[in-house]
């Protein structure tokens, strides 16, 4: 089966699509996640959105918290990002649901936040396209990876990382790209030199393990 581990719109080209919903304007899908993206945080209103989120994440079809995270490139105050991300970590651990994380140039802070908050839930770094050293550190910390359209780029960091993170540690996604998840699976198959069916079976197994959902 095809699993799209992170998308912003239901594309209907995978048997399971984990759709990232906006807590302020949710449109329910079969499987979804809730989180406050660091790009859109506002100091005077995030707590209201988070109050809604703390209720909504208990819905059975909400499989994960996120996407949420840290981004040093965006203009949102970084201390605010840290405060909100820590709130997401605590909520994820209270509900025993995985975290789907957006992280740009803040991996040290990401790891520190997780450790300081005694994180126990699986963490998936979505849209991973960073160098092999960062990938190695995240593997050592027990984090998971979700690879998307960057795999299609020639000799991309994502393509290199995919070969080294281990089959039990990754997922595939479309994020906000207008592309079929099937192209991502096909490219991953080519990069790893294994049959596409094997990748489908491995990601299904990974998904069942991380999300505690029998498929």
Overview of the structural elements:
By secondary structure, the protein is an alpha/beta fold. The protein is built from seven helices and eight strands. The chain has helices at residues 46-56, 78-95, 107-116, 132-140, 157-162, 181-192, 196-211; strands spanning 3-7, 16-21, 31-34, 62-71, 99-104, 123-126, 144-147, 170-172. An eight-stranded parallel sheet has the order 1-2-3-4-5-6-7-8. Strand 6, helix 4 (132-140) and strand 7 (144-147) form a beta-alpha-beta unit. It is globular and about 50 Å long.
Number of strands: 8
Content-based structural category: alpha/beta
| Rg calc | 16 Å
Shape: globular
Write the layout of secondary structure elements.
Layout: E1 3-7, E2 16-21, E3 31-34, H1 46-56, E4 62-71, H2 78-95, E5 99-104, H3 107-116, E6 123-126, H4 132-140, E7 144-147, H5 157-162, E8 170-172, H6 181-192, H7 196-211
Parallel strand pairs: 1-2, 2-3, 3-4, 4-5, 5-6, 6-7, 7-8
């Amino acid at each position: 089966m095809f699993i799209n581990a992170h998308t912003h719109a239901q594309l209907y080209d995978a048997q399971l699509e984990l759709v990232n919903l906006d807590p302020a304007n949710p449109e329910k899908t079969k499987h979804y996640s809730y989180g406050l993206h660091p790009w859109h945080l506002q100091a005077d209103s995030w707590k209201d959105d988070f109050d809604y989120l703390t209720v909504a994440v208990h819905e059975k079809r909400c499989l994960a918290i996120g996407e949420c995270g840290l981004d040093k490139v965006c203009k949102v105050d970084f201390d605010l990002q840290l405060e909100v991300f820590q709130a997401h970590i605590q909520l994820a651990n209270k509900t025993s649901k995985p975290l789907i994380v957006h992280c740009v140039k803040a991996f040290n802070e990401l790891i520190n936040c997780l450790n300081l908050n005694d994180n126990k839930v699986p963490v998936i770094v979505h849209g991973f396209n960073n160098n092999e050293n960062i990938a190695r550190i995240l593997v050592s910390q027990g984090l998971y990876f979700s690879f998307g359209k960057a795999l299609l780029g020639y000799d991309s960091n994502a393509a290199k990382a995919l070969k080294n993170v281990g089959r039990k540690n990754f997922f595939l996604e479309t994020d906000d790209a207008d592309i079929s998840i099937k192209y991502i699976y096909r490219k991953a198959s080519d990069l790893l030199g294994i049959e596409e069916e094997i990748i489908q079976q491995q990601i299904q197994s990974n998904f069942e393990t991380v999300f505690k959902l029998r498929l």
